[in-house]
Amino acid sequence: QTVVTQEPSFSVSPGGTVTLTCGLSSGSVSTTYFPSWYQQTPGQAPRTLIYSTNIRSSGVPDRFSGSILGNKAALTITGAQANDESDYYCMLYMRAGLYVFGTGTKVTVL
Amino acid sequence: QVQLVESGGGVVQPGGSLRLSCEASGFTFSRYGMYWVRQAPGKGLEWVAFLRYDGSKEFYADSVQGRFTISGDTSKNTLYVQMNSLRAEDTAVYYCAKDGGRDGYNINYIDYWGQGTLVTVSS
Prior knowledge:
The complex is a heterodimer.
Chain A (H helix, E strand, L loop, with lengths): L3 E2 L3 E4 L4 E8 L11 E5 L6 E5 L3 E2 L7 E6 L2 E7 L7 E10 L2 E4 L3 E5 L1
Chain B lengths: L2 E5 L2 E3 L5 E8 L6 E8 L5 E7 L6 E3 L7 E6 L4 E6 L8 E11 L7 E4 L3 E5 L2
Parallel strand pairs in B: 2-11
Antiparallel strand pairs in B: 1-3, 3-8, 4-5, 4-9, 5-6, 7-8, 9-10, 9-11
């Protein structure tokens, strides 16, 4: 059973930068996994941020960026704002029709 | 604008069945793959199932394989998931979601989400 791992939590200061990662329990994440990123605040449906590694979804501010860092997918928030305080999930395309979400990272801005 | 509205959630006993619906609007339903994603109380997101845009193939997470069936009705622009042999661990908010690629374009991500419907499996 493949596990997609993310840091449980991060704290960032307003205006600061934070990089969240998304890795595999075995193997490396590459663009062929089509990593995507989603933001969720409590009680709300998720919101799509990034797809195909580094493409911002419509309306997403450019302080959110995606990349591959080493053997993981990464989401960087540059110039964090108070309303970025949320849970963040990555999703990987494993193979034909099968997907896995990461364990999620709770980001606190303070 | 794209809208996805789930319905059908509720309380069901262990071993019981439930069918969730997701009414879609604002896009050509028959040209996009569709997902079900769930979230247990206080837990993370879990991919449940995916239906190809043309309805030709269905894919399931191991945790629901053989118990859940995803389907779509293009005449009603509605996605379904039939859930049988329900267990306590199936208790979750179930989200319907739309794939970002048209006509099977291999882009593999969710671009729109519904607001979710809560399923509680309890005696």
